[in-house]
Structures are given as structure tokens and as C-alpha cells.
Amino acid sequence: MKSIRANLVLWLSGALAAGMVIVLAAAYALAHAELSLVFDEELRQIAQAAHLREDWVGTGTLRLAHPEFVFAVRVYDEGGRVYFETLSPLAAFDVPQTFDPGFSDVETPLGAWRVYTHVTPEGVVQAAQPQATRAALARELSIRMVLPELALIPLLALLVAWVLGRGLAPLAETSRRVSDRDAARLEPLPTAGVPVELAPLVEQINALLGRLAASFATQRRFIADAAHELRSPVAALALQAQLASRARSDAERSAAFAELTRGIERTRRLVQQLLDMARLEPGERAEAPAPLNLAQLVREVVASYAAQAEALGVDLGVEAPPAVRTTGAASELLSLVANLVDNALRYAPRGSEVTASVKQDGAAVELAVMDCGPGIAPLERARVFERFHRAAGDATRGSGLGLPIAKAIAERHGGSIVLDDAHPGREPPGLTVRVRLP
Fold first, then answer.
1. Residue 127: what are its φ and ψ, rounded to 5°?
2. Quick one: which of 388, 381, 366 has its CA closest to 429?
3. Spatial contact of 37 and 31, defined as CB atoms under 8 Å apart
4. Beta bridge partners of 327
5. Spatial distance between the Cα atoms of 384 and 226, rounded to a whole number of angstroms
6. Is 141 exposed, middle or buried (0-12, 13-18, 19+ CB in 10 A)?
7. CB 398 within 8 A of CB 423
8. Is the pTM here over 0.90, yes or no?
């Protein structure tokens, strides 16, 4: 597991070390440049200080006893005859003679030399110094300057670690507060005194905690509602089973088993709707959308309810062109249409009609299911989309989940759902459910 503090200390220490290297290089370059100016001036003064005497004869070598003398001097006339020269303790003075005055850099088999040539009427004086001597002295001076700073790097690293510890303390405190949260304690983290850099993270964590609290509340409410809704049909099934077991004739037994079968079907339908509702909860993974023919899907649903419609004495039909294309999750849209058709059949009077229609409407697709039932009062239409809500006087024993499921699926597909009177001005007015999908 990576540590932000360790990484910051490592990178800052590395940056300090790199900075010290740069400082050392700069100090070396500066020291070398300054020493070059000083030594060039010394070469010039040494060359000008040599006194050329007219009575010098022959060639001589002046041996310097001091081993730290790092200059070499040679004097010769215009014909090249050497008057005298020093023997440098560092190397033999192997610099070619020249008659051009001024400074020059000369490469020799023993290394580079810095040479100053002083030309006078009496003769020529050459003063020289090995470049290696200057470089060594520059290194020594630069190391002396930078060494105390290098020794400070460990102390600076400790100081950086301490400062980072203080600076990251709010992060550690936020981490502790987050670790204290669980399913039973999802209140938002306090934002007072939070650093500006950490505030966006705390806000996002609080938003996540809010979503989790809402999700858990929805889950608890759903479980409570599901338990409440399942209690009645399960009790009814138990009662019907008892009636079937106590039947005294085949006719009573057949009637009891028929009612038991209908109860089982109602319970199965309720359980399926509960599962559909659970799959539509926010955060649940949705089926990948794909192109589909909505008209064909509606015809398949209507065909699956044909037997039920015939048993209820309702004329169930479809009005749709051969193909109406849209994009969506086929299983969810199938559930949407099935819930709307099932609701319409529940409320449609015997001998009436239920019609499912599909059409293209500009950039949208419109699905409508129309029945001739009692309809829903305008003031009640907003509430019927609430889970388990049933209109006053509803005797269909429905679950109150059909329209909420349809609304959730429509909105999940970026669409909308509205309720209207199917036959305005008539009694009963019926109901038309319109779903618009992109």
C-alpha cells in the first residue's frame, strides 16, 4: 500500500538532493571562473616581474624548492635561445615557444596549460600553469561551500516529514470519521475547519453518505411494504388451502382449488412485481439498451394476455404499424407494457375494449394503453405512481405496483408517462396511459 507521506518525503528529499547537486555544479563553475581570473592575473604579474638582464649568457634552469609552486616560467630571446626556465614540480614545462603576446590555452602530452606570453625588446617571458591545478582547487572550494548544505539534507527531510504530518492531519481525521460510519450511522461529515483542498472530497463523501442513507431507507421501506403486502395473499392462500382440504363434495373442492389457483396467480404476480421494482432501484445494474421493434413487442404482450382478456369478456387489441423502432432494454419495456395491459384488464368492464397502440411521433415513440374503466380522478393521478397506493374504492385487489413500475421504466429510458381520460365527457371516462420514449 502506497503512502502519500512517504512519497512526498521521498520526492521532496530527492528534489533537495537534486537541488544540492545543481548548487554544487554552479558553485564549481563559479569558483573555477573566479579562480581563472585570479590565476590569469598572477600569470600576467609573474611574466611582467621577470627582469631581463643583458649580461645573461647560456641556458639555465631555476629549480624551485617549494613543492606547492604551481607555475612555470621560461625566458628566451627572439631567436628561441632560452635564458632560463623553472622546472615545475608538477610536470615538465613542455609548452611550445611563441612570440604572440597574451593568454592562450595549450594542449600538451601532459595535459592542458594556461599560458601568458609577455614580449619585450630584451626577450620573451612565458608564465604557465596546468589547467588541472585550477580545476582541483575549484572542486575543493566548491565542496567546502556545499558540504554544510549537504549535511542539512537529513535534517531537512525530518523537517519535511514533520511538516507533512501536521499538514496531513486533517486527512487522517477525515479518514477516522469515515471509518466510524456504518449502515446505522450515515450522518454527513462535519465541514467546519476542513482545509480548502480537502473540502471537495468531504462534500463528495457526504453526497455518497446521503445516497446510501436514501438507498437504505428505500430498502427498509420496500421490505416493510413487501412484507405487509405479502401477508394478506399468503394468509388467503392458507385459508383457501384449508377450505379445499375441508370440502365435502367434489364441487366444493373444485371451487376451492379454483380460488386457490387464482390466489396463487395473484401472489405470483405480486412477487414478480416486487422483483421488478427491486431491479429498478437506483444503483442496480440495468440491461444494456439495444435497438428493438416496440410494435412487435407490444403485439407479443397482448397475445400473452389474450386468454385472460377472453375470460374477462374484454376485447383486447393492438393498433400499430408493422415496425416502430426505438432503443431500450427489451425485458424492462416488456414489463412496462405488461403492467399497463394487466392494469387495464383489471379495471375494464365486461364487454368493453382495451387497446394498446404504438406510433411514431416526431423524434419520439408513443405507447398508449386505453381502457373503458372508471378512470382516475385528476387529483388522484399523481398519487397512483406511489408504491402500493390504491385509489379509494378500488376492489380489484391489485398490488399498487403496476403504474410505479411503468413510471420507473419510462424514466430509466429517458421518457415520460402521463394519465388522461380515454373518453372525456363520458361516464365512465376510462383511462389512457401514454408513455413517450426517445
1. -115, 130
2. 381
3. no
4. 291
5. 17
6. middle
7. no
8. no
